[in-house]
Amino acid sequence: MKVLVTGSSGLIGSEAVQRFDRHGHEVVGVDNNMRRVFFGPAGDTLWNLERLKGATKRFTHVALDIRDGRASKSSFECIALIDRSLRGSTIP
Q1: pTM for the full model?
Q2: N or C: at which end does the chain have fewer Cβ atoms within 10 angstroms?
Q3: What is the DSSP string of 48-70?
Q4: Is the CB of residue 3 less than 8 Å from the CB of residue 20?
């Protein structure tokens, strides 16, 4: 299955990326690193993105603000949307 994880470079999103990757799913992660905007350099999540790239086999990152509907629609087709709020569910 191909899954989309929003906020993929953050704490919860990165854990979801790793879990889906371990279970053999193709993972597309979307993150625009807004933590850097809100919290300055200390909030930057690029270090975690680089860690994910090295720790996963089926992960692709897209730097995209999902609030931009036009860009989001043109970037993704036929992807099962997995909301980070499902972290407690039984989806592998």
Answers
A1: 0.75
A2: C
A3: HHHHHHHH-SSEEEE---TT-HH
A4: yes
| Rounded CA separation 31/62 (Å) | 7
Give the number of other Cβ atoms within 10 Å of residue 60's Cβ: 13
d(C-alpha 4, C-alpha 84), whole Å: 10
pLDDT in tens, 9-67: 999 999 999 999 999 999 999 999 989 999 999 999 999 999 999 999 999 998 887 77
CB 28 within 8 A of CB 5: yes
Distance of CA 82 to the CA centre of its chain: 10
Buried/exposed code over 4-40 (b: 16+ C-beta within 10 A; e: otherwise): bbbbbbbeebbebbbbbbeeebebbbbbbbebeeeee
